[in-house]
Design goal:
Immunoglobulin-like, three-stranded antiparallel sheet
Length: about 130
């Protein structure tokens, strides 16, 4: 996500980084898209907020988290009951293709903001029938 000035995080003006990925569900009959939902797993205290890896350790930024939203502005869910729909894109010969688009940005998480390493990891989980 690059380097961001602490003043931009404090003021809420840190730039969003957009990302997109596609999921191909193989072995399905063409033109029969299933309802596909997605939710995420990671070190979090609330939907849409991802805590930094190794938070509280020397050299790691403080007072910072990563805010995550889908392309509609919905905070990313970190539990199955809040899973959101993925967008069906197209049928292929042996697969249905879905797309997810979202954004991430550094945001204040409370307390004094101090510079440092600001990495985090999350996993996406697909829910379909």
């Amino acid at each position: 996500m690059g380097k961001v000035a602490t003043s931009n995080i404090k003021s809420g003006t840190a730039l969003e980084q957009r990302y997109t990925f596609e999921v191909r569900c193989r072995g399905m009959k063409p033109a029969t898209p299933l309802p596909m939902k997605i939710y995420f797993e990671g070190n979090t205290d609330a939907n849409g907020m991802l805590n930094l890896t190794s938070a509280g350790q020397a050299g790691v930024a403080q007072g910072v988290a990563i805010e995550l939203k889908d392309d509609k502005g919905t905070k990313l869910p970190f539990n199955k009951p809040d899973a959101i729909n993925m967008d069906w894109q197209r049928s292929e010969v042996d697969a249905e293709v879905y797309r997810f688009s979202g954004s991430a940005r550094y945001t204040a998480s409370g307390g004094e903001i101090k510079p440092g390493k600001a990495d985090a990891t999350m996993t996406y989980v697909l829910d379909y029938n």
